[in-house]
Amino acid sequence: MSTPIIFDTDPGIDDAQAIAIALAHPDIELLGLTTTFGNVTIETATHNALLLAELAGQSIPVAQGASAPLVKPKNPPPGHIHGDNGLGNMPLPPVTTQAVSQSAAAFIVEQVNARPGEIVLVAVGPLGNLAAALQLDPSLVAKVKRVVIMGGSIREGGNVTPVAEANIFNDPHAAARVLQADWPLTLVGLDATHRCVLDPTSMEKIAAAQGELGKILGESYTFYRDFYQQAQGIDGCCPHDSCALVWLLKPELFQVERGYLSVVTEGLAEGQTLMAPASRQFVDDRWTRSVAADVCLNADGPAVIQWMVETLTAE
Ligand code: BDR
Ligand code: CA
Description:
alpha/beta, 12 helices
């Protein structure tokens, strides 16, 4: 049986890979793409979401969302990681489709209310759209099936500061609301995604099998790979956002612990995610006021990559 999802994204090279999976996998019913600033501006994010769906030959609603963080000033988009156009600076064809007139938050609220208990929200960018949807309709917490978030880091350290992961750092106030809301939540952070490296041979297979979309995935990968080579000395890249979908369909590839999540919103540790393990007691309840979440602390990297390749090369 396929799972209906809304995919909240800031495409983004690894977002594009994940969108390809969401469009291709027979066990996913992709209800819509909701866009946010993050890797790129909101206008570019929406353009890229429309383009990727068009290149896959699918008609998927795209709803535009947050253009800036809730409280802090916006960080400039990381052009050195994803390219100024979010897809490795490769020339892109024009898009012919348009975003729906609804905001991302309104789209999420409408869809979840139409199918209570069924929809999984998968969020792989800064979390302003989910925070806005919660504000519009607090009853969502009881109506979503689950929220799966690519973001955060518990033991792995950060990728944009010594302690913060990019999606959480880009809007820590939104992240605090979303990670502490009373809904069933899985966090797929750097503790798991850094165990997964999409190597050039695997990427070649994917690019060859994905037609027009494959050209974008393949060429943008080259740009992303250069960044990883310089930044981390690895030959390949971490397909962070795809890992959220792999968890959804293949959770046995991840090691999960129950814990209460908090987000640091100010100061030097801004954007850090903390997990208080549900199995332990602490001096007071400051770290355990939310509901416990499922937090991925490790992954079987090679098996995750193999699943991605099989998904994106299936006939
Ligand atoms: C996350 O940050 C973005 O750059 C990626 O698209 C991913 O969602 C990884 O930290
Ligand atoms: Ca992303």
